[in-house]
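Structure tokens please, single chain.
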Amino acid sequence: MPRHLIPLVLAIATFAAQAEKADRLKPFTLSSDKPGQIDNVNQRTELQGNVVITRGSLMLRAEKVYVRETPDGYYQLSASGVAGQPVSFRQGRDTPGESIEGQAEQLEYDTRTETVRFIGNAEVRRARGTAVAEQVSGAVIVYDSRTEVFTLEGGSASPNPNGRTRIVMMPRAQPGDDAASAPPAALPLKPSTTLQPGKSS
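Here you go.
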């Protein structure tokens, strides 16, 4: 097996990104542009056309979504996008102002294990407000919000050259960074002591 296809498991403290715990107690809300189908016998729901799913701070957008309810009351979601419009996912963290955001051609979400699987040209990032703190990309990214572990796989469906996985970690701002990086203040202008008005050298 080529090395870039071997799964890479990360348990990086700086990328610990526990999903907001309160979301687990919130109901799912699903909406779409096109008519949907609910199969009560098989506990399966299908939605198409600009599907939006929310659950507390969680928001998922896709072109098509299948939702299956397990016999013990958990939900399994399978979402797919279209060319030029991948599935997008966003969920707040317990840390105020931080969120997990990602996109991929397909996405699977399991409420029993609290895992999100990004499949095909996958990119996931942790944001602090509007700034990106960390970002990972690969063919497949699996995020387990309970253990705070990301699993990355490379391959032909990776957005990176040669199918490699990629991790970018931004440095944390340190006290005094703003002052140190600011340009020096401009010196005040003073009148010349050698030049005289009306004369040229």
